[in-house]
Write a structure and sequence with these properties.
The complex is a heterotrimer of chains A (about 425), B (about 290) and C (about 300).
Chain A lengths: L1 H23 L16 H5 L9 H5 L15 E7 L6 H20 L8 E7 L4 H15 L3 E3 L4 H14 L3 E3 L7 H4 L4 E3 L4 H16 L3 E7 L3 H17 L3 E2 L6 E3 L7 H10 L3 E5 L2 H13 L6 E2 L7 H7 L7 E4 L9 H11 L5 H18 L10 H14 L1 E4 L2 E4 L10 E7 L2 E11 L1
Parallel strand pairs in A: 1-2, 1-3, 3-4, 4-5, 6-7, 6-8, 6-9, 9-10
Antiparallel strand pairs in A: 11-14, 12-13, 14-15
Helix pairs in contact in A: 4-14, 5-6, 8-9, 11-12
Chain B lengths: L1 H29 L6 H18 L4 H25 L8 H21 L4 E2 L8 E4 L2 E4 H23 L1 H11 L1 H6 L4 H27 L1 E2 L3 H16 L4 H21 L5 H15 L8 H6 L1
Chain C lengths: L2 H24 L9 H17 L4 H23 L4 H20 L10 E2 L6 H20 L1 H11 L1 H6 L4 H27 L1 E2 L6 H14 L4 H17 L7 H15 L11 H6 L33
Helix pairs in contact in C: 1-5, 1-8, 1-9, 1-10, 2-3, 2-4, 2-8, 3-8, 5-6, 6-8, 9-10
């Protein structure tokens, strides 16, 4: 009785949501995309027999005969991202990718022959919202898996809830060290731990530039930057034989600062061989600008997060030559189709955030279609277990390169050196940092 | 490095002073703690940015537009939070300004996006070396402008009829109106002028630090409050000196100590002043009693 | 009951606690703009106890509350010297200092926050709410409660009547902080993770809005304000990005048309209806916000005027 009512109301909600999404979506659902569905991904998922690859099924909302193993009438996936608030740009990109993928998948048979419904919730960049929405996705919407949140601060509150409720959650973009490890076995994050990624970059950087003494700079208000600049990177730098001459604390500033004169003057006085800096893109760019303005010519190494337009906007010419690490950019060979479809639908290039979101959705598809998941609403708890096991063992290659998860739940990726040349980001695919 | 830090501190401080001037005017004359003042400052920077970058108008025009827009916003705040709000309810105007601040910030985020935008640099990056100190022409220009404005404002309050009227109202609105001063009109003008001052501060800060964000108002507001208290409410010289002091304190704490405690240090100063000399550096004992 | 609705129940209950905690202080006419600091103290201490020392939740929360209460008392003393606007600024500054302190303690996780807590249940939250409300209601009807009211209305007269205004005002700070601290402890064990930015100015303003919206002079107003505004985001979810805009607009509108909040002094329906008409004459004689006596005097030999 109860189940029927719930099922029916869910169906109604799904249809309404679908209508809402269709009504509000920008530039409508990108229709040409289906033919360009990730060619890279399908070979990887070939081993699983996909029964009933009926293109006809895509055009109906509820196929009369559910494809072989999957029960229910649709596959529900939850997606959390901050569409408003300080990092809204990334959240909007996620929203775009979600719509793109949903239409791509549904145009080519959905997942396991069932249509896909991705429930996208805006966390507004607020941990409180992330808490409430995670609970909702798990207990009300009963999605098979949750993707997101994006910000590490949101992940910190959302992941423990997923763990407590025993549901799998996969963040496509948070990479502050340690978060997945604290939330075993249900929390997963696609990006590699930042300490590994940046750490490898640091070692190479030190060797190439023959650095003996350096300063560590970091945003002390942003959790991620603070962690990196105080806890994770200094030991790596020191282990590479470099003397950190700024004292026991990094030279710091706070998120939202616009003046870095005092900090840079101090650096100038210390006269290091190089500068390591960790901050958000806007502050990082402004800081770098001040560094060059005061005449300092030392090489600078920054975090992956600086690969963002705000950084270039804020730094201008000062960004030339800055040392970064990246896992992806729009020139990545396997991403061509994705970049083109995204550009066609939304008028601009996607970024790493979008590429990772894209891959995480297809990773989920692969796991669900692997044969164990039933999609039976009565079997949800078991399905969650199966998906979790699937995540632990999955190997996937997509538009953002190869992905797999380590025993901590963090992603294993290839990272490359990157820099800024001529005002644009350049990823040096021949210079591999980690594998 | 020491002298360079002094220059940095003075630059930072003079921008705080400008913001505090308008703020202290409103608090001193009208008894209004205007939380939306910082947002007027922010909007002015964005308007300047838009006029210069999007409409591609000459910078002087953009600057004037920015300052004027802040003045207009300030007048709107007057009407929303002051004119029609009954003052006998606890803190009602203050809370209203909080509401207006939320409105303005949200509107700015909707219109311009939440990302940091680069502020135009019409004057380039030429710098001058004076001994151990490196100052850019832009910075010199900013400091000069700030000082000139403050001096002009001081003179205005002291000698100009309107300025004197403001001072009269700050002492007693009733007496002022008995003396024939049109209190409402002067109040309105006070708001407008404070707004324009904040607007100029916004443009100058955009020039100095090359960035605008919807959250810049909030960040600076608390500092401006500290400057105001330190200098003494309603006191123009106090605002100027207080601003310089806070700018120097911040700069030196960053340069020689740790940035993570920088904000706390400034606020500790605020609390200490409030406890031990609430009338501020330039306030008189008479003020203390009434507090 | 699904986890989602449980979550809402707990969040709303915690907000009610926060709201009445602030109200306790505000009821003596002292507007604290930094109450979230007490929430943070309660949350961090309780979390430290449960995670590091494996203490059970309720005693840990109680200790957190007591610590917050002590902090409140400590603030209460210097606060005595300050009136309205100065108090607002001082409490604001204190809240920011507290946040920076939290941010810089490695033991508390620093900027990265602290996790691993759990244990709050809807039952626990609402039991606490009931206890707090019962206490405050009884307080309101007791002599002490009347004394609070007297101090709010006219501090000088109250002092003249022999009330120990100092003790009353400090008590108000302390008790308010205690309740808020307990709410903070429950909050931490509900979100499973806390970080300093959760207890900043935004949170303080939010709590202030509960009280102001619902009815500044009225305990049940504080409750109502928390209930309505907590459910605001859920109800207004369709508004998405515009929801903050509406929030600000409501505040501005309220201050113009009904600054005392939804519930007036007596929570009879009459008063709510009465709010439709100009309140000017019927306004309770709350303390007037006087422009501080600071005049635009310069510090040197200027107009000395009639001084």
């Amino acid at each position: 009785m109860n189940k029927q009512r719930r099922f029916f109301s869910l169906l109604v909600m799904a249809v309404l949501l679908g209508l809402l999404v269709a009504a509000c979506g920008p530039a409508a659902q990108p229709t040409p995309a289906p033919t360009k569905a990730p060619a890279a991904a399908t070979p990887a998922s070939k081993p699983t027999e996909k029964p009933a690859e009926k293109p006809a099924a895509a055009s109906t909302v509820a196929p009369s005969k559910p494809a072989a193993k999957l029960k229910g009438t649709e596959v529900k996936i939850g997606f959390l991202a901050p569409k408003t608030g300080p990092v809204a740009a990334w959240g909007v990109e996620h929203d775009n990718v979600v719509k793109l993928v949903e239409s791509q998948m549904n145009a080519s048979g959905g997942i396991g022959g069932l249509p896909v419904k991705i429930l996208f919730y805006d966390t507004q960049g607020k941990p409180d919202e992330a808490v409430s929405l995670t609970r909702r996705l798990v207990s009300e919407d009963k999605t098979l898996i949750m993707l997101g949140p994006l910000l590490s601060s949101e992940v910190s509150v959302a992941f423990p809830i997923a763990v407590a409720l025993k549901a799998p959650i996969l963040s496509c973009c948070s990479n502050a060290p340690g978060l997945s490890a604290q939330n075993r076995p249900w929390g997963f994050r696609l990006p590699q731990g930042a300490d590994l990624e940046v750490g490898a970059n640091v070692k190479l950087f030190v060797k190439e530039n023959n650095i003996k003494k350096a300063v560590m700079v970091g945003d002390q208000k942003d959790a991620f930057s603070k962690l990196m600049s105080t806890q994770y990177i200094p030991p790596i730098v020191k282990a590479a034989g470099v003397d950190l001459i700024n004292g026991s604390e990094p030279i710091g500033f706070n998120t939202g600062d616009t003046s870095f004169a005092a900090q840079v003057t101090r650096i100038k006085d210390l006269n290091p061989d190089a500068i390591f800096a960790f901050a958000l893109p806007a502050e990082g760019g402004a800081f770098l600008k001040e560094v060059r303005r005061q005449g300092l010519k030392q090489p600078v190494l920054g975090p992956t997060a600086w690969i963002a337009t705000q950084f270039l906007d804020a730094a201008g010419d000062s960004a030339e030559g800055v040392r970064l690490s990246a896992v992806w950019d729009v020139d990545y060979p396997k991403a061509k189709d994705f970049v083109e479809s995204y550009k066609k639908a939304y008028g601009k290039d996607p970024t790493m955030a979008g590429a990772y979101a894209y891959d995480s959705l297809y990773i989920v598809k692969k796991i669900i279609e692997a044969g164990e998941v039933t999609n039976d609403p009565a079997d949800l708890a078991k399905d969650w277990e199966r998906i979790k096991n699937g995540l632990e063992n999955v190997k996937y290659e997509g538009v953002a390169g190869k992905s797999a998860f380590d025993k901590n739940g963090d992603g294993i990726h290839t990272t490359y050196q990157a820099t800024v040349k001529g005002g644009k980001f350049v990823t040096m695919y021949d210079k591999i940092l980690t594998d | 490095m020491f002298f360079q830090q002094i220059v940095n501190g003075v630059l930072l401080g003079s921008t705080y002073s400008l913001l505090a001037l308008g703020f202290t005017l409103m608090l001193g004359v009208l008894g209004l703690l205007n939380f939306a003042h910082g947002e007027a400052f922010m909007i002015s920077a964005y308007v300047g940015f838009t006029f210069a970058t999007v409409f591609k108008l000459p910078f002087a025009v953009a600057a004037v537009a920015g300052a004027l827009s802040a003045g207009i916003i300030s007048v709107i705040i007057y009407y929303l939070s002051f004119a029609f709000v009954k003052r006998e309810f606890m803190a009602a105007p203050v809370l209203s300004t909080i509401g207006v601040a939320i409105l303005l910030q949200t509107a700015a985020t909707r219109i311009w996006g939440s990302d940091v935008r680069p502020f135009p640099e019409p004057f380039g990056q030429d710098a001058v070396e004076m001994g151990p100190v490196l100052v850019s022409l832009v910075q010199i220009g900013i400091m000069l402008t700030a000082f000139v404005l403050m001096a002009a404002f001081y003179a205005f309050l002291k000698w100009n009829k309107l300025g004197k009227a403001m001072r009269a109202i700050s002492e007693s609105p009733t007496n002022a109106s008995l003396l024939g001063i049109r209190v409402e009109r002067v109040t309105l003008l006070t708001f407008f002028i404070s707004g324009v001052l904040a607007g100029i501060a916004g443009i100058l800060i955009g020039l100095a630090f090359h960035a605008v964000t919807p959250f810049m108002g909030m960040n600076v507001l608390l500092k401006a409050m500290t400057v105001m208290i330190l200098g003494g409410l309603g006191n123009a010289i106090g605002a100027m000196v207080g601003g310089l002091i806070i700018g120097l304190v911040e700069t030196f704490s960053v340069g020689y100590w740790a940035a993570s405690w920088r904000d706390a240090l400034v606020f500790v100063i605020l609390i200490l002043v409030l406890i031990f000399k609430p009338s501020g550096l330039f306030g008189t004992r008479q003020h203390e009693e009434k507090i | 009951m699904s986890a989602y609705y449980e979550g809402i129940l707990m969040a709303v209950g915690i907000n009610v606690l926060l709201s009445v905690g602030l109200w306790t202080t505000v009821s003596t006419g002292q507007f604290s703009f930094g109450h979230a600091a007490y929430m943070g103290i309660g949350a961090y201490l309780a979390s430290l106890l449960t995670v590091t020392f494996k203490a059970p939740l309720i005693p840990a929360a109680a200790l957190g509350a007591v610590a917050a209460g002590l902090a409140g008392v400590l603030i209460g003393f210097p606060a005595l010297r300050l009136s309205h606007l100065y108090l607002a600024m001082a409490t604001l500054a204190f809240a920011e200092i507290a946040r920076v302190i939290f941010m810089n303690q490695p033991a508390l996780g620093g900027a990265f926050g602290m996790g691993g807590m759990s244990g709050t249940t809807p039952l626990l939250v609402w039991a606490a709410v009931v206890v707090a409300l019962a206490y405050l209601w009884l307080l309101g009807r007791s002599r002490l409660g009347l004394a609070f009211e007297a101090v709010r209305q006219d501090e000088i007269a109250a002092r003249a009547m022999g009330l120990n205004v100092t003790w009353i005002k400090v008590m108000a700070f302390g008790q308010g902080a205690l309740i808020t601290g307990f709410a903070g402890a429950l909050f931490g064990h509900f979100t499973f993770y806390i970080e300093p930015n959760m207890f900043g100015i935004e949170r303080s303003v939010l709590i202030l809005l509960f009280v102001v919206f619902g009815g500044v002079y009225n305990l049940w107003g504080a409750v109502l304000g928390a209930l309505i505004l907590s459910l605001f985001p859920e109800v207004f979810r369709p508004l998405k990005d515009w929801y903050l805009f509406v929030y600000g607009g409501v505040l501005v509108a309220m201050m113009i048309w009904r600054p005392q909040g939804l519930l007036g002094q007596r929570w009879a329906a009459l008063d709510v209806l009465g709010g439709l008409f100009p309140q000017a004459k019927r306004a309770p004689p709350g303390p007037v916000i006087e422009p501080p006596a600071a005049s635009l005097r310069d510090g040197d030999a200027g107009d000395k005027g009639a001084e």
